[in-house]
Specification:
715 residues; alpha+beta; six-stranded antiparallel beta sheet; 12 helices
Length: 715
């Protein structure tokens, strides 16, 4: 019967001719992929290791290698894999010709035309960044190890207690027998069947999210005659989820608003090479903020993370990296990655939907796009009938787009109040969508604003990268989301700052700073506490801007964030109590020269910060001179004349791309597009003419926004 050996230790790693010894998980972009250098290495590296021959059929298992991988044993090619986020295996029995064998793994994270993702707003860390195992003593008859990296046993539970099981068996022949057993959380046998694909658990205990994430275990045992030859165990839960365009989301028949955060899996100094400890810490922080759902963007994440979500009760949006730049050449790979995602993870009760694309219209919608997304949608339904499909569109995707009527549920990514217009723009857009698409179940799948640690202002403003503005941005969105009952949920972008090699803004290189928590997980930004005030029952008070010890001398305004209904603020002789919810504003707080002890309290809960009264704020509290920014005041009143001294849609593509800010933004979202032959062809064409072409599929709203943005950039 199958046995496992970890191969994580003692690899020789070679990059550009230099060799070092490493242990797994490992990435070669842990530093340069996070801004330590202007560019990061995207290319080929080689891992080698001596492995011993084992008994029985033997498989080599990789839990995650980014992005293309080719494996050799003793110089013979074993196989290749395309896609950086899923498990894959090779049967290496016939390749282990000696007691000791030379294993070579070539890994390449350079852009590949046939593989998703090719370009996106996150770093593509190269390396063998998850576990590698040798599976040996596999008998001729075994639960399949060849079905897209899955365990070979697929479970579909029903809330009435029925458990449907599909098992793929390799080497099947007369005399093979399968026994299925279901055990409850205490290890008690509650159902058993032999050679049948249906079991029944009487009075099943439902998996009820954070409230009660109850798990069962299915044990599938394979016998040849009377001898046990293989066994697989997989946990599952009884739960049903449904969505309604008018009423939102229901878990096991009970209404639940999905209060979600998005999560990239990387971390400062580690890249994607995480252990179970980092995964668990992330989930503890997500639980603390009060979220009940997580969008795992934009790719398959570690099996350990899904398992922890099962245990803790988070509802998970799982998706594949069909993102940003659609290409028909990538469709085969898109289908492959989706099949791997579903087959490897369908037993996890935490996963409630399959995401099949994100912002795929960022460069417009080609004629082949709709049919390709429909093909992905059909595949997901064919593989798993129990879960809805979903997608995430970007603002520029017209509300009436065909893409908005393919998946069962959907989301939109909006950044009103950060990249464009003001926060009020989201309210206006939601009303437009509701009027045009009243039968589509909708969520906000992304929204956010950047906050760079160290920036503070008494008057936070859009584009200043201060924590204060980020906090106010999210306060507005929280109130808007809560006032729209028909929205089934929302997902903050992002729970944590993350690596994005294409970025250099706000005085920080190689990072997206939209997280509620810093990249190293050590600092909770003010916006974190804003969400905790709206979402969590754990009582607290938090003085906004409390980590910025300097305050201007004179009468100042302080905001306290809390989920208590009454807060008191003290500073010297000043004392004031306010009743309310979430945000408590105290005006005319006297700050004198020197130290000022400020205490916010609610009952027995309090927080104290000592502020220093100063005549002028430290220069470090604001953006450094010359810092690049992708944020401008995009709002220009309708009807205002076009200023010829600034860019507009009347300018040609070539003239617009001469601007450094534009080139920087385009390179961030469109990769190599600006250097492609197509750009040379369209350079003489006015942007207004290009946007007017029917096949571009750009809404009037987006044309207006393009004009507004260009009118902020002087020629």
């Amino acid at each position: 019967m199958r046995q496992y050996i970890s191969l994580n230790q003692g690899w020789t790693f070679e990059k550009k001719g230099e060799k070092t010894t490493v242990d797994l998980p490992h990435t070669w972009n842990a530093l340069d992929g996070q801004g330590s250098e202007p560019t990061y290495y995207r290319g080929k590296c080689v891992y080698t290791k001596i492995i011993e021959r084992q008994s029985g059929i033997t498989y080599l298992e990789f839990k995650g290698v980014n992005a293309a991988c080719t494996v050799y044993i003793n110089g013979r090619k074993v196989g290749s894999h395309l896609g950086g986020y899923s498990t894959f295996r090779f049967n290496v029995t016939d390749f282990l010709s000696s007691p000791k064998n030379f294993l070579t793994v070539e890994v390449d994270n350079s852009p590949i035309r046939e593989v998703y993702p090719e370009t996106a707003d996150f770093t593509f860390y190269g390396g063998i960044y998850r576990d590698v195992n040798l599976i040996y003593d596999v008998e001729k008859q075994h639960f399949s190890l060849d079905d897209c990296g899955s365990c070979g046993v697929y479970i579909t539970p029903k809330n009435n207690g029925d458990v449907l099981v599909k098992a793929l068996i390799s080497g099947y022949e007369t005399g093979v027998k399968v026994v299925y057993e279901v055990f409850d959380r205490d290890g008690k046998l509650v159902a058993k069947a032999g050679n049948r694909a249906r079991l029944h658990v009487a009075e099943p205990h439902l998996w009820n999210g954070l409230e009660d994430p109850y798990l069962y275990t299915l044990r599938a045992s394979l016998y040849m005659e009377s001898r046990l030859v293989d066994r697989v165990e997989s946990r599952f839960g009884f739960r049903e989820i449904r969505f309604d365009a008018n009423e939102g989301c229901f878990l096991n028949g009970k209404h639940i608003k999905l209060k979600g955060v998005s999560r990239h899996q990387d971390r400062e100094g580690l890249g994607n090479a995480l252990t179970i400890n980092e995964h668990r810490e992330d989930l503890e922080l997500i639980r603390e903020v009060g979220a009940n759902s997580i969008r795992l963007a934009h790719y398959q994440q570690a099996d350990e993370f899904y398992s922890l979500c099962d245990e803790m009760g988070f509802l998970v949006w799982a998706e594949v990296p069909v993102i940003s730049r659609f290409s028909k050449k990538k469709q085969e790979n898109a289908l492959s990655q989706l099949e791997e995602l579903i087959k490897q993870n369908m037993n996890h009760p935490s996963i409630f939907c399959w995401g099949i694309e994100n912002e795929i219209t960022i460069q417009g919608a080609s004629p082949a796009l709709v049919s390709s997304i429909e093909e992905l949608n059909d595949l997901a339904h064919g593989l798993d009938v129990s879960r809805p499909t979903t997608c995430a569109q970007l603002t520029m995707c017209p509300i009436e787009s065909e893409l908005n009527n393919i998946t069962d549920i959907m989301g939109y990514n909006h950044y009103y109040g950060w990249y464009m217009k003001t926060c009020d723009g989201i309210d206006e857009w939601l009303e437009k969508f509701r009027a045009a698409q009243p039968t589509v179940p909708l969520c906000l799948s992304e929204y956010g604003a950047e906050a760079v640690l160290g920036y503070y202002s008494d008057d936070p403003a859009q584009g200043d990268y201060s924590e204060g503005y980020q906090s106010r941005f999210h306060e507005h969105y929280l109130r808007t989301i809560n006032s729209h009952d028909w929205l089934w949920g929302s997902y903050v972008w992002n729970m944590f700052d993350f690596g994005s090699s294409v970025r250099n803004e706000g005085g920080v290189r190689g990072r997206n700073n939209k997280g509620l928590i810093s990249f190293d997980r050590k600092t909770k930004k003010d916006a974190f506490f804003m969400y905790k005030a709206f979402w969590s029952d754990e009582k607290f008070v938090h003085i906004e801007g409390g980590r910025y010890e300097c305050r201007m001398i004179g009468k100042r305004t302080f905001r306290v964030i809390s989920n208590c209904n009454e807060v008191t603020l003290k500073c010297g002789r000043y004392k004031k109590t306010i009743q309310g919810e979430h945000v408590f504003t105290f005006d005319d707080v006297p700050i004198k020269e020197g130290d000022n002890k400020v205490t916010a309290s609610a009952g027995d809960i309090e927080e104290t910060v000592v502020f220093k009264g100063v005549e002028e704020y430290p220069r470090s509290y604001s953006l450094p001179d010359g810092a690049t920014t992708m944020v401008r005041n995009w709002f220009v009143p309708k009807g205002e004349n076009i200023d010829p001294e600034y860019l507009s849609t009347e300018d040609t593509i070539g003239e617009i791309l001469k601007n450094e800010d534009i080139r920087g933004m385009v390179s961030g979202v469109a990769g190599m597009l600006i250097s492609s032959p197509l750009i040379k062809i369209v350079s003489p064409i006015k942007l207004k003419t290009l946007l007017g072409l029917k096949f571009i599929h750009i809404s009037d709203d987006m044309k207006e926004l393009a004009e507004q943005y260009l009118q902020t950039i002087k020629k």
